[in-house]
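Following up on my earlier thread - several people asked me to post the actual chain instead of describing it. Fair enough. Here it is, all 313 residues.
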Amino acid sequence: MNLAVSESAISESTAPEIHSVLTIDMLKELNRRSTTKGFIQLASHFLILGISGYIWGTNFGHWAIVPALIIYGFGFAAMFAPLHECSHRTAFGNNALNDAVCWIAGLLSFYNSAFFRRYHKWHHRYAQDANKDPELSDPVPQTFKDYLLTISGLPWWWGKLQTHTRVALGQLDSYPFIPESARAEVIRSTRLQLAVYAIAILVSIVARQPWFVTYWLFPLFVGQPILRFILLAEHTGCSHDRNPFTNTRSTITLFPLRFLMWNMPFHAEHHLYPSIPFHQLPQTHQQVKQYLAHVDPGYVKVNCDIVSGFSQA
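Reply from S.P.:
Thanks for posting it. Predicted structure:
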């Protein structure tokens, strides 16, 4: 059953004003950040990583090894969620804490926080604008072969290696979303991140243990396809206009997935009101869902729709 409201019923010209959907008082209440809730969410995320990582690292050959690896790997990939939340500085009540967690989450998920914050700011400002949205620089799958390649995460790995290398070398001309005033910070942050990886690799070599590969690189490689499966649903098949009610999708999914993704499946709500913290998005959804063009029941359904669109084309 398709839960989405017809997009034609909510065109750019007929969509309500964003500020008319939630009153000022409602928005003020929903905008409240909570350091306590942020800490609980982050600690729970790390606890899941710790338990699954322990099983993965100590029970080779045991029946639980495969599910533990999948959970552990996705836990690393899903560090993209606190990176994203902290880039908006909404996870915690303290901005310095947001920035620190943002950098650590980026380190664990192979993103750079200083780069991503500017990149993501433009994505929100120019969402679904083919000429300005930096997310659209990554080609949307047009065939089933393209889809499988995207879901594999291989283009993402190659893109991250290229971007980190260029930024570390100071080659920022192809990234217009990074202003001149932020270039030194982005370069310094990326170089420090690459240095941490280099140290981790060196420690593994000196100890003659495959720690870097076993506990980070390989699990993240396993977890990336799940994250690609989720992120592909956020805007694919949505309108290419400035209407936030039609250009972004929210996906109703299982609690464990929603939890590890810090409520990011409520993505249309987030694009409508980026200042609302992750823990308030379910409540926001109840207030705005009737206005959204794309509210789909699960990521499997969305991805099946994407794939079926290839055959129709």
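Residues 1-9 have pLDDT under 50 and may be disordered. That should answer part of your original question.
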